[in-house]
Amino acid sequence: MQETQYDSKGHDESEIDLRELLKVVFKWKWLIIAITILAVGTSAIMSVFILPPVYKTKAMLLVRQASDNRSYSRQNDISNIEDVVDTVSSISRMTIQSYVNQVKNETVLNNVINSLGLDKDLYSAQSLGGMIQVSAISDTNFIEISVTNSDPHLATKIANSLSTEYVKHITQTIQKQMNQSVIFLNELIAEEDIALDKVSDNLRDFQSQAKSTNFLASEVQSITENLADYRSKYYSLKIDIESLLVAVDRMETQAVEIPETLTREEVLPATENTEAKVIEVQEPNPEYNTLIAKLQDKQVQLTQKQAEMTSVQDTIAELQGELVGLQVDLADKRGNESSLERELARHERTYAILSEKLTQSQLAQSVDIGQNTLQVMSPATTPINPIKPNKKLNIAIAFVLGLMISVFIAFLLEFFDTSVKSADDLQKRTGLTVLGSIPNHDYNG
Predict the structure, then answer these.
(1) pLDDT per residue over 398-417, tens digit each?
(2) pLDDT for res 90
């Protein structure tokens, strides 16, 4: 097989000779043939007579309400009562993969065993699950259920029963969820009804108080109108007073310029003792007196107007103080009333939402939601040909393995065979040149 040669430095070099390899194969050909035939025969016997045939059947389900993973991102932030009620009362929407993972649910498998009347000593949920493969078909809403069994009829029954029981399981799960939602919603509605009555009574009692918002608003309006009237009167008095002051000032100026008395000459007649003479007589100035009378009248009017103006100012100050107090009370009343009205509106809205969701949940109770969510699109049919053992493939594999193993054994035996059988063997093993050989001689001849 190998030729040992020496290079210029005395090192040996081994080369594989293909002819030597073929010689080894030819030398052990009967061993190789025997082992290969033995492997092929064993595989044929195992495939035909020993290994039981295994049959495979498939059923197809259609998921109508599958959601993608993004639909769950919203569930992490529930901010109001509507979101809470929607979360509790809505039907859970699973992804296709979620449906796939639930098919081999232990409850479903036990229901299949019970419905088919299988021997529980031979079949358990775990062993039955080992016969079943469930997968989602890419880019579709279809689920494929595959069942393998040595009995083709039993495999078909298991596949169809599994499809039916899974649809029932989904229906029961949703039905249970809806029942819990109805109970929960009824409890919430009862609590909300009590709260709504309480808030309504509080608002009614608040509005029936003596000083209600309407009464205070009317008082504020009345005082505002009175205040406007008094302010108008105040400005009118102010104008009158200013006019009177101007008139008084003008008259006082005129009074200074007009003399209080007038001088006139009067002739005194002559008497026995005196002669007639002319004398000056002082007498009141009628113009001055008239002016003084008007001035005094104006001053009286001015005093009256000023007194009236002071009274009006006092009244305005009093009305303003009363108005501020009423406005503060009205703002507080309106704030409290608005708070009660908002609370009442919130309870009414909550009650309406709960009632609507209760109606939806009660309607969902009366509908076979499982059938609407899942549908058996293609029931399993009884397979005719087994999927294994694959006789041709097994025999081909056995032939290749037998040939490989037999060739390996042949080379292994050749490797451990150290005997010298020819001059060529001696030359290869020692590296010496053979000068001659002694032929075999039959001494009995």
Answers:
(1) 889 988 988 888 888 877 76
(2) 52
Residues 163/61, Cβ–Cβ less than 8 Å: yes
Tokens of 282: 């002082």
- What is the DSSP pairing of strand 132-136 with strand 55-63? unpaired
Q: What is the pLDDT of residues 184-221, one digit of tens each?
A: 888 888 988 898 899 898 888 887 877 788 888 888 99
Contact in structure between 353 and 81 (CB atoms under 8 Å): yes
**How many C-beta atoms surround the C-beta of residue 56 within 10 A?**
19
Side by side, the strands of the sheet bearing 374-378 are 132-136, 142-149, 55-63, 374-378
pLDDT confidence of residue 72: 38
User: Looking up tokens 């049919």, which residue turns up?
Assistant: 381
pLDDT tens, 344-402?
A: 898 888 888 888 888 877 776 665 555 567 788 888 888 888 877 666 787 788 889 98
Tokens in use for 387? Answer: 């999927």
Q: Are 240 and 319 in contact (CB under 8 A)?
A: no
Would the pLDDT of 151 be above 90?
no
SS (H, E, C) the chain: CEEEEECCCCCEEEEECHHHHHHHHHHCHHHHHHHHHHHHHHHHHHHHHHCCCEEEEEEEEEECCCCCHHHHHHHHCCCCHHHHHHHHHCCCCCCHHHHHHHHCCHHHHHHHHHHHCCCCCCCCHHHHHHCEEEEECCCCCEEEEEEEECCHHHHHHHHHHHHHHHHHHHHHHHHHHHHHHHHHHHHHHHHHHHHHHHHHHHHHHHHCCCCCHHHHHHHHHHHHHHHHHHHHHHHHHHHHHHHHHHHHHHHHHHHHHCCCEEEEEEEECCCCCCCCEEEEEEEECHHHHHHHHHHHHHHHHHHHHHHHHHHHHHHHHHHHHHHHHHHHHHHHHHHHHHHHHHHHHHHHHHHHHHHHHHHHHHHHHCCCHHHHHEEEEECCCCCCCCCECCHHHHHHHHHHHHHHHHHHHHHHHHHHCCCCCCHHHHHHHHCCCCCCCCCCCCCCC
In the chain, where the domains are located: 2-51+389-430
Angle between helices 286-365 and 213-257 (to 10 degrees): 160
Question: Which residue shows structure tokens 């005196």?
Answer: 274
Q: Does residue 20 carry a pLDDT above 80?
A: no
What is d(CA 135, CA 96) in angstroms, rounded to the nearest whole number?
Answer: 9
Q: Can you read off the two tokens belonging to residue 175? A: 């039905």
The whole-number pLDDT of residue 445 equals 46
Query: What average pLDDT is seen over the chain?
Result: 79
